[in-house]
Task: structure prediction
Amino acid sequence: MEYKTDIDIAQNTTLIHIKEIASKLKIQEDDLEMYGKFKAKLPLDLIDEEKAAQNNLILVTAITPTPAGEGKTTVSIGLTEGLNKIGEQATVVLREPSLGPVFGIKGGAAGGGYSQVVPMEDINLHFTGDFNAVEKANNLLSALVDNNLQAPENLNLDPRTIFWKRVIDMNDRSLRSITIGLGGTANGVPREDGFNITPASEVMAILCMASGFDDLKKRLGDIFIGFTYDKKPVFARDLKAENAMAILLKDAIKPNLVQTLEKNPAIIHGGPFANIAQGTNTILATKMGLSLAKYVVTEAGFGADLGAEKFLNIKCAASGLSPKAVVLVATIRALRHHGGAKKDAVNEPNPEMVAKGMANLEKHIENIRKFNIQPVVAINSFTNDTQEEVDLVIKACKALDVEAVVSNGWAKGGEGTRELASAVKKVVESAQSSFTPLYDWKSPVKEKIEKIAREIYGATSVSYDKKAQLNLRRIERLGFNDFAICMAKTQKSFSDDDSLIGRPENFEVTVREIEIAAGAGFLIPILGKMMRMPGLPAHPASEKMSIDSNGVISGLS
Result:
């Protein structure tokens, strides 16, 4: 059989007009703001809170991933196709891809094989300009900050205390730490600065947390910038920045409608990473989906210890969303890895390593149940899986009273996920899940951090570096104790140590510092050396990409 790449499959699919996709959700053509024939913005007045509360939200997450990822987006799209195949009205709600991973090592985020959202190239590249709008709003605030430093009537802002950074949606390590304002008085005040990648911007986090346009503006105004020389806090509203920033986001706040390969509706909006931010699409997009479809399938980034924990404790707690089931994506490859298989052997059959690696999956199952939600395990199928290994996982999950189902959406689309769709529907209809957050936002900051570290990661203790202790006192002084906790931690381990695979035990996590995202409404404890600006690998994905004279792209994945 001829092997087809993701982009080959996407380009050989005949798309239907976006107005036909909208009609499946009973959206009138006049309500669409079209971006060509196959993309459209949806107005916020389509959100119906009452309907949203009645319909069924399914969260797709995963075990601790390998660098290539375990296919959450592919499973999410495939599950949506499968639900439609078994007669349920379903739509998928996803994050937008960042250009950093697209041109770096991980690739795009439009699914894979025969479980994709299309137009794949557009979604993975500039799409409808939302990332550009976030970037511009972020950098407008940066420009206003530096302009104020040398304005005759300034805020007395101390340049040494400025926390706000510029952003760009590209992996560019040379921009992590820079000096700006050189070249004399006409060019600003010299100071240390740096760039984060756009998904790490608090503006992105705010866009994903906002309940509407007025809330967006308020949150933008609440962004904490730094301190004056006499130790008073300075916020974006002090620079009168929130309205101008909101103007740049006036279209970006509207969710985007596209289609799957099987012509089902897909909503894509927002794109924070899960290791350094909350890792899930916008509250508005999820509620939009739930207002229009009986089933909404959505995903949260990286493993369940990051994306799912934040989805449940931050997004759901803030918005009132309540998932009816959680799908835990596992791959035989990842289970071999967590069982101790060497990097060059993870694609080789090894039932013994799979059995050992089950400890990682078991911990994630245990964690999901702490939120009073029943999980379903989706074994994302790869060609080098053996039946013995698959049966081992199914049997081990059955012993935990969890159904494990092979998901073959990559190769077969909705036909390959019928069984998974039926398993998820069964959990939803059994009403086994009654979502409860892990912690109360009003609990003390250290108590919240330590609950996540102990309950979700399995740490025995938490230590705080001197900088983190100073940060805790600052948070207390500023009155930000009641914020949610958004951990910044490696995605490669339950711990803060990349090398501790499987289910590590008897370990301590160290909080190095705690950043404040006052507009987003959460605190960001940083565990280990987390980078907000990734670098490119030795051979980035961009090297294999091409475009011909007709504008046809190849090599994009």
